[in-house]
Design brief:
By secondary structure, this protein is α+β, with helices and mostly antiparallel strands. The chain is 44% helix and 22% strand. The chain has a three-stranded antiparallel beta sheet. Helix 1 crosses helix 2. It starts with 6 loop residues before the first helix and ends in a 7-residue tail after the last helix.
Length: 103
């Protein structure tokens, strides 16, 4: 899907996620990419999914792209981005057996 979001919206969301929610990125990376994920940075998103660059414990391994579909299906509006990232965080906590913090 081509993105329905402007470059400015994408940049703002990525800045927020990568500055304020680094731990959430890692939880999402581990839950949907595997327990050996040691780092995760959100790199983009579109109407269908969020995309993270993940690194694994093997220091020689190249970074990988992890594309995680939005739990609620396709989105087109900026407020839906937050809703879907929160849903991914909650789903990641469930997969990993962690109690999510209140939103």
């Amino acid at each position: 899907m081509s993105t329905p979001f402007s470059p400015e919206v994408i940049a703002a969301v990525l800045h927020h996620m990568n500055d304020d929610h680094r731990d959430d990125n890692l939880l999402i990376g581990r839950a949907f990419g595997g327990s050996d994920v040691t780092a995760a940075t959100m790199v983009t998103f579109d109407g269908d999914a969020g995309v993270w660059e993940i690194r694994r414990a093997d220091a020689d391994a190249a970074p990988e792209e992890l594309r995680v579909p939005w739990p609620g299906g396709a989105i087109t509006e900026r407020p839906e981005v937050r809703r879907e990232i929160v849903a991914l965080y909650d789903a990641a906590c469930a997969v990993l057996g962690i109690t999510p913090r209140p939103h």
